[in-house]
Design a protein that fits this description.
Layout: H1 18-29, H2 36-47, H3 49-60, H4 63-77, H5 82-86, H6 91-106, H7 127-139, H8 142-153, H9 158-165, H10 169-187, H11 197-205, H12 216-224, E1 233-234, E2 238-246, E3 250-257, E4 263-270, H13 277-283, H14 285-291, E5 303-307, E6 310-316, E7 320-322, H15 323-329, H16 334-353, E8 356-357, E9 366-371, E10 380-385, E11 392-393, H17 408-415, H18 426-440, H19 453-462, H20 477-483, H21 494-500, H22 506-576, H23 581-736
Antiparallel strand pairs: 1-2, 2-3, 3-4, 4-6, 5-6, 7-9, 8-11, 9-10
Helix pairs in contact: 1-2, 3-4, 3-6, 4-6, 6-9, 8-10, 8-11, 9-10, 16-18, 16-21, 17-19, 22-23
Length: 757
């Protein structure tokens, strides 16, 4: 069965290790004040510390034992010189070889990998994949497991692995291919790893969960650097209180400004002493970059000086927390995100206008300073970009930052890709947009399995991250696709990004616009409804009155009918009763008057009913007119809403065209920058070619003169040789001819003739 197995062999042109690329960038940034070997010597232990910790933990089966072993490893590696550490195959191989020796000395009956917490694959990974990882760890022999761990999880080259194990490279490659093929049989052809494929699965199989505590290397470095003593006065003004932060280049302290009672400042002092004028200029690099940018959301500096030949500078003291600390509690709302990231984008615009890239934008370098009274219901937050230690001028090809927030073009530089776009200010826009995504939805933040940083960087170079996945944030997908595009030309500038951040609160703005329309349309509709209600009320009132009149008329008619019946009864009774004719006539007359009175009432009721019907018809006509007016106003409102929607569509279209135009302009500017860079490179190469041509011309002239001189010497030697030959021939001729005066000597009898001289 064919299986896709990662190639264990080194590539013909192996790319540089990440640490080496970073070291070369630091040397470039520092103006060649340090050698690459010195930087590697200083940073190798810190760079590989997490991988060494995991390697020792798996070997010893205990975090505590691994920490002790790491302390021994650190102490022993400190005794190496830069030259010894950087001897081939390189510092990584030397450190892992030392770690293997230390682990062997500390391991006493410990089972490989026992009692450790393995790395958790991507959320939603199939149960079958998790079981396959566990099965692989159990079934592999310790030797094969170590081979695969060193090659894929620790990212050592085959040459490095051979050095660590003390074996031949070809044998290591053969065993790696065999072990990887066996792993493919357990994990399958396309396991669902974070970075994809079998290579990613092998990285996850031998990776431990990242430590929540500071790394052993970090603790060692911090303990080995003696902190400034509390109460120390710096610059005859600033009194040290405590160390609050420590980074790659310097420590940050809380200090009191003794010239301003009660005023607290942040004081940063660099680790390295500057012992020369050139070193002082290099140390001032971060300070010069900070001083060239003026924006409330970019950290400012107030003062600087030198303490024991180490540069220090003073910045404002902010009360608050980093964005990283904030989103660990809960994600930002879209409104909060806009309030925080809009000033940051504007700050980046200012930095880029000054020709400076920040190069390390991430939530941990965004400080949320609290502004206002602590007891206020809602304190204002001022976001501030901090740590410009790896910032660079626009023209500098310095690559730095944090791998998780690398733009693809920076990752391509580290990964040694053939196609490496020019690094521009849009790399900062990418990092800021990625910080925004992680602030809105922290669960989307990528993780590096174990210590496979180089594999993650290579993956980032070709696969930019996606936007938020939450349902309520899905509408932002087109924007994040542009903001996190692989091609820098498709991304907006920092200024455009600041303008486009309004999309975060677009649903709220639409609701507000609808409310605004309703605020002026509702009173009109309400007035129409009130008028209609009034007319309807009058109509109903009149209808009730007409119904009452009709009822009265019906009652009167009923009474009249009853009286007629009684009259007939009386007439009948007249014939039967003993009453006198006069009595009967009187009664009939009384009844006639009553009937006439009821008839008059009936007439009046009918007249009132007729009048009421007329009034009802008038009210109905008025009601119909009001209805037509209401329909007209509703039609106007609908027309206005349609016009408003059309205007919004036109505005969105214009904004889209504007963004597209800006994107094309950005692409054209990037292309122009690339052409300019190529032109500069070509001019440089042309100058070098000219210099080489001049040099070659000089060499040719020298060679021609030497050749002419050699020919002259050859001719002279030939003449001398001819003269000598003539002399030799003359001598030979003289020697062969007998001389007359020379006596003839016969040879002795019975013997050989004597030789002639």
């Amino acid at each position: 069965m064919d299986r896709t197995v990662p190639d264990a062999k080194p590539t013909p042109a192996a790319k540089k290790p990440v640490l080496l690329v970073a070291a070369e960038s630091i040397v470039l940034a520092n103006g060649m004040q340090e050698t690459v070997a010195d930087v590697l010597r200083e940073r190798a232990l810190r760079h590989y510390s997490e991988g060494l910790r995991q390697y020792l933990t798996i070997r010893l089966g205990s975090t505590g034992k691994a920490q002790k072993a790491y302390a021994e490893l650190t102490a022993r590696s400190e005794q190496w010189s830069s030259a010894a550490l950087n001897d081939p195959p390189g510092p990584r191989a030397h450190l892992y070889k030392l770690a293997r020796e230390v682990a062997s000395a500390h391991r006493v009956g410990a089972s490989l990998g026992g009692g450790v917490t393995w790395f958790s694959p991507a959320e939603g990974a199939p149960e079958s994949y998790l079981n396959a990882l566990t099965k692989l760890r159990k079934e592999l022999s310790p030797e094969d497991a170590e081979l695969l761990e060193l090659r894929y999880a620790r990212e050592l080259s085959p040459e490095d692995v051979a050095h660590v194990l003390g074996r031949d490279v070809e044998d290591v490659i053969t065993d790696l291919e065999r072990a990887a093929s066996r792993a493919a049989g357990v994990l399958g052809n396309a396991p669902p790893s974070r970075l994809g494929g079998l290579r990613g699965a092998l990285q996850e199989a031998f990776a431990l969960a990242p430590s929540r505590e500071p790394s052993a290397a970090h603790r060692y470095e911090r303990s080995s650097r003696r902190a400034l003593v509390e109460g120390t006065i710096i610059g005859e003004r600033y009194q040290i209180q405590q160390r609050v932060g420590d980074g790659s280049f310097g420590d940050v302290y809380r200090a009191l400004d003794t010239d301003v009672p009660g005023h607290v400042v942040a004081l940063k002092i660099l680790h390295k002493a500057a012992k020369s004028e050139e070193a002082r200029k290099t140390a001032l690099r971060e300070l010069r970059l900070i001083a060239s940018v003026f924006h409330p959301s970019v950290v400012d500096f107030k003062d600087h000086g030198w303490h024991q030949e180490r540069l220090w500078f003073v910045m404002p003291w902010y009360e608050g927390e980093t964005l990283e600390e904030r989103i660990k509690r809960q994600p930002l709302t879209r409104e909060e995100a806009r309030e925080i990231f809009l000033p940051l984008a504007q700050a980046l615009t200012t930095m880029h206008a000054a020709g400076i890239r920040h190069q390390d934008i991430k939530p941990d370098n965004i400080f949320l300073a609290r502004i206002g009274e602590a007891l206020a219901e809602r304190q204002r937050v001022l976001p501030v970009l901090i740590d410009l230690g790896v910032a660079a001028k626009e023209a500098e090809m310095i690559v730095a930052g944090t791998p998780l927030y690398f733009a693809p073009e920076i990752a391509a530089q580290y990964a040694g890709k053939e196609q490496r776009p020019i690094i521009s200010a849009k790399a900062d826009v990418f990092s800021l947009a990625l910080s925004l995504r992680n602030a809105l939805e922290p669960a989307t933040q990528e993780q590096v399995p174990g210590t496979a940083v180089e594999a993650f960087i290579a993956h980032r170079a070709d696969h930019p991250p996606k936007g938020p996945s939450a349902r309520e944030l899905k509408y932002l997908e087109p924007e994040f696709k542009r903001w996190l595009a692989k091609d820098p030309g498709e991304r907006p500038t920092a200024e455009q990004f600041a303008e486009e951040l309004s999309v975060l609160t677009r649903p709220e703005r639409r609701r507000e616009r609808r409310r605004a329309v309703m605020r002026w349309a509702a009173p009109l509709a309400m007035g129409s409804m009130v008028a209609l209600s009034s007319i309807t009320y009058v109509y109903l009132k009149k209808r009730e009155e007409a119904q009452a009149a009709q009822l009265r008329a019906d009652v009167t008619e009923d009474k009249l009918g009853k009286e007629s019946a009684r009259r007939m009864e009386l007439e009948e009774s007249f014939q039967l009763s003993e009453l006198t004719r006069q009595q009967v006539e009187d009664r009939l007359l009384a009844r006639d008057r009553e009937v006439s009175h009821l008839g008059a009432q009936l007439g009046r009721a009918r007249t009132e009913n007729t009048e009421m019907v007329g009034r009802l018809q008038s009210v109905a006509a008025e009601l119909e007119g009001s209805r037509r007016s209401l329909h007209s106003e509703q039609a106007k409102t609908t027309s206005l809403e349609g016009q408003l929607f059309s205007a919004e569509q036109r505005r969105a279209f214009v904004e889209s065209e504007l963004r597209e135009t800006r994107s094309r302009m950005g692409a054209a500017e990037a292309e122009l920058d690339e052409l300019r860079t190529r032109a500069r490179v070509l001019l440089t190469e042309l100058d070098k070619a000219r210099e080489e041509a001049h040099t070659q011309v000089g060499r040719v002239s020298t060679l021609e003169r030497a050749l002419a001189h050699a020919r002259d010497e050859q001719e002279q030697v030939a003449e001398d040789l001819a003269v000598e030959r003539r002399k030799v021939r003359e001598l030979e001729a003289r020697a062969s001819a007998p001389t007359p005066s020379q006596p003839h000597i016969d040879a002795p009898q019975g013997g050989e003739p004597l030789p002639t001289m």
